Every structure is written in structure tokens, then in C-alpha cells.
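Study this pair:
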Amino acid sequence: MLTRFAPLLRSEGDWWVAVPDDEWPEDEAQRDVVLQDFDKGSSHGDRRQEIVFIGVGMNEQSIVAQLDGALLTDEEMDK
């Protein structure tokens, strides 16, 4: 089944937090745009996973509830 959707899966490239400073844009405005995606409260920078649902008639509350139900608790994460 994944093969059917493989063309829809894509990566936007490297995380900026992992790119050496000398390879960053020199233009300050461009650097500011990159930094807008950073999580300022952590060392993760712009690292994150995102999932997008595109469709008609989807029940957002149901999707959110199912995804939330799949999250691990702090205790489960500590194992």
C-alpha cells in the first residue's frame, strides 16, 4: 500500500540546525526567515516531523483524537 503513496512522501532536505554556519545564507533577511522555523526553547532548532492530511469530508476531531491516543505517556517514554 505504501508504494501507491510513495510519490507523495518527500523531504525538504537538511535541517538548518545541522548545516555549518559557513553554508548558511549570507543575507541577514534570508537567515531571519530560516530562524523563524526554529524552536527557541530547545536545542532542536528546526528539526521536527510534520504530517499533512488532504481530503474531503475528513473529521478533524476524530483524526486528532486518534493521533493523540497513539502518543506515549512520560512513563512509557522513560522505559
In short: The mean pLDDT is 86. DSSP finds four helices and no strands in the chain. The longest helix spans residues 60-69.
